[in-house]
Specification:
The chain has 123 residues and is an all-alpha fold. It has one domain: Cytochrome Bc1 Complex, Chain D, domain 2 (Orthogonal Bundle). Helix content is 60%, strand content 0%. It starts with a helix and ends with a helix. It binds heme C. Heme C binds next to helix 2, helix 3 and helix 4.
């Protein structure tokens, strides 16, 4: 009886470790959440942009936009450095460029604007 009770803490420890590993693995494949704004809720455009990014872009550009072997880095101010405004970046996303696929017909202009704002403002 006492043996079982003494066994409990280590069982709990193993459970915590496994849960922690699973959480880490899951975290690696999701993109950063949108922070709550002054209105007390996250900006809905950025939330929509995050969905588009996870569905359509992260496979090549990485969950945090850090780039993968299939697509370059987009995060940490890249859009502001490379483009005067989001219109020029939207042209690349809609029309494609070399190995970057064209998204016109797959995404609306609003979705493209939302995902670019998410990349620029959150990633
Ligand atoms: C199949 C892989 C792939 C997917 C999916 C993809 N991209 Fe790309 N993307 C690329 C590649 C490769 C480039 C580099 C293109 C080049 O060499 O001109 C690129 C370039 C870009 C650029 C230009 C970066 C720069 O430095 O000028 C932007 C912006 C961009 N992608 C945004 C997106 C967005 C937004 C999505 C999702 C809607 C997306 N990409 C989905 C592969 C991808």
């Amino acid at each position: 009886m006492t043996g079982e009770v003494r066994g409990l803490p280590s069982f709990a420890l193993v459970l915590c470790l496994v849960a922690g590993l699973v959480a880490t693995a899951c975290g690696a494949s999701t993109s950063p959440e949108v922070e709550v704004g002054p209105a007390g809720t996250p900006d809905p455009v950025l939330v929509a942009g995050r969905e588009v990014f996870m569905d359509r872009c992260s496979s090549c550009h990485g969950a945090s936009g850090g780039g993968t072997g299939k697509g370059p880095r987009l995060n940490r101010g890249l859009l502001e450095q490379e483009y005067d405004g989001l219109d020029d970046a939207a042209a690349v996303v809609l029309g494609g460029r070399r190995r970057m696929p064209a998204f016109s017909g797959l995404l609306t202009r609003n979705e493209v604007d939302a995902v670019l704002r998410y990349i620029r403002d959150v990633l």
